[in-house]
Amino acid sequence: MPEIENSDVIKNVLKILINISSRKTSKGYAFNTIDNIIKELKDKYDFLKFVKINDTRFIENEEPVSIMSNINTVNYLSMGNALNDIINTIHYSLGEQAGHFFIKELQRNIGGDYNSVIKEMGVDLGLMQLEKEVRDLDRVITHKKESNE
To answer: Of the candidates 29, 37, 38, 144, which has an alpha carbon nearest to the alpha carbon of residue 97?
Structure first.
């Protein structure tokens, strides 16, 4: 497997997040949400300044995500932490609109090589989906207990 650079990983993940989010909400909402999340996380992850989200709804032949090559010098684990925060924040921001299997859909669309790479970075999408399902189940059980009291 050829080495996949940080720029390719984050570009691929963000493009898929935009596609999934825009199907569940609207393209405008997806672009704005993801752009705002990247801006918010720049304080925590300085290297996100190399990421630009382009609203391509009215522009032809433009990539929705631009990444400067400087991001390729970022430590794998730092990149993984940022991706983890981006995915969780987007998932949280979309709320119920994200759907039950938002992360599983991301995992399926991202592909094998990228799944392996982000897992090496510390982003385990399967575990993230399982944690979400456990939280949802806990919420249901808690609600049922409160209803029966």
So the answer is: 29
Task: Retrieve residue 141's tokens.
Answer: 């059980």
Residue-range domain boundaries for the chain: 6-148
Per-residue pLDDT tens digits of the chain, which is 149 residues long = 458 999 999 999 999 999 999 998 899 999 999 999 999 999 999 999 999 999 988 887 789 999 999 999 999 999 999 999 999 999 888 877 777 788 989 999 998 889 999 999 999 999 998 888 888 888 889 888 888 77
The DSSP symbol for 4 reads P
Exposed/middle/buried for residue 77 (C-beta within 10 Å: 0-12, 13-18, 19+)? exposed
Q: How many CA atoms does the CB half-sphere of 26 hold within 13 Å?
A: 4
The continuous run of DSSP H or E covering 66 comes out as strand 65-67
Cα 108 from Cα 98, distance rounded (Å): 15
Nearest to 41 by CA among 50, 29, 54, 31: 50
Q: What is the pTM of this model?
A: 0.88
Tokens read off for 60: 């032809």
